Amino acid sequence: MATGHTDPHRRERILAAALDLIAEEGVAGVSHRKIAARARVPLGSMTYHFTGIDDLLLQAFTGYADHVVAVFEQHLGGATTADEAREAVTDLIHTLSENPRRDLILTQELYTLAARHEPYRALCARWMRRSRALLEHHFPPPTARRLDALIEGLTLHRALDDTPSDRALTREAVARITAAP
Question: Does the entry feature the keyword Manganese, yes or no (predicted)?
Answer without folding.
Answer: no
